[in-house]
Amino acid sequence: MVADWVREVGSDRVEVFALLRPGTDPHTFQPGAADVARVAGADLIFTVGLGLEGAWLNRLLENAAADPARVVALGDNVDPLLGAEEEHEGEEEEEEGHGPFDPHFWWDPLRVKKAVDQIARRLSEVDPEGAETYSRNGASYGQKLDSLDARTSDRVKQIPQERRKLVTSHETLNYFATRYGFEAVGAVIPGISTEREPSPAELAELTTKIRELGVPVIFTETIVSDRLAFAVASETGTRIVRLHTDSLGDPRSGADTYIKMMDSNVEAIVQALK
C-alpha cells in the first residue's frame, strides 16, 4: 500500500521498490540480502510505522546502515488509535517491536490523506525541482481519497445498525469501525499483530460473544491462515468472508491498488452484512 501511495505522488519522477510483495504479511516478513542492498541505496524509506513492520524492519535498517533521517514512518502523524487494551500486551509484543498504537490506519481514507501529505512533503525535500509535481499529485490523489471516503459512507448505509458488528482474523478493522460506525466485536487472534496464537480461553470467549451478539460473519484475511476462523465458524454457525487487509492483492484480484482494495473490501462487507 505504501508503495502505491508513493507512486501516486511521485509519478515518473520517482523509482519505487516495494519490499513486500502482494499477499505478504507485513507483521512477519523476513527480508533478504537483496532487500538490505535496496534499502542501503534508497534516498527515502517509507514505512507504515506504529510497529506494523515489527522487529524485522529495525534489523533491516541496522544491516543496511540506513540513516534514520531517511526513514519516514507515516503512521506517526495520522492521529493513530490506541490498540485494544489486553492482558497479553507487554513483553511479548515489545519483543517483536509492536507499540501501543494500532498501525492499520489505511482503513480510514482520511488518515491516508495525512500520509500522502507527508509523502509529498518528504519527496519535495529530497527533490526540490519536483515539489510542484508532488504537491499537485498529492492534492489530486487526496481528492480520490475523499471520493473513496464518501463512497464508503454511502455504501455502508445499506447495513442496518444492529448488523454492523465485525469479527476478524486479527484486530485490523478498528479504524474502519471508528470511521464508519461499526462495532469491532473481537478477533480470532486477539491483537494488532498476526504473530500470536490465541489461547483456548480466548477462543471460547470469542465464540460466546458471537453467539450472544448474533454476529453473522467472520472476516478472514488473505495473509492469515483460516484454520482457527473456520473452527470458530463451525462452532457458531457463522459464514466466512475473506478480505484483503494488510496487503494488496495481485493484478488479477481486483485489489491491486489501495483504492481498488478498499472498494473491494467494502463491497464484500456490505454484501455480507446487509
Biggest β-sheet: strands ordered side by side in the sheet? 1-2
Query: Based on DSSP secondary structure assignment, what is the total number of beta strands?
Result: 6
Poorly predicted regions are: 86-95
CATH class of the largest domain: Alpha Beta
Hey, roughly how much beta strand do the residues contain?
A: 5-15%
Helix and strand succession? HHEHEHHHEHEHEHEH
What is the CATH T-level topology of the largest domain? Rossmann fold
For the residues shown, what is the average pLDDT?
A: 91
Q: Nearest-angstrom radius of gyration?
A: 19 Å
Largest sheet: 2 strands, parallel
**How many DSSP H or I helices?**
10
Question: Would you kindly provide a written description of the structure presented here, covering whatever features stand out?
Answer:
- This protein has 274 residues and is mainly α.
- It has two domains: 2-150, Nitrogenase molybdenum iron protein domain (Rossmann fold), CATH 3.40.50; 156-273, Nitrogenase molybdenum iron protein domain (Rossmann fold, 3-Layer(aba) Sandwich), CATH 3.40.50.
- It contains ten helices and six strands, in the order ααβαβαααβαβαβαβα.
- Strands 1-2 form a two-stranded parallel sheet. Strands 3-4 form a two-stranded parallel sheet.
- It is globular and about 60 Å long.
- The two termini are 28 Å apart.
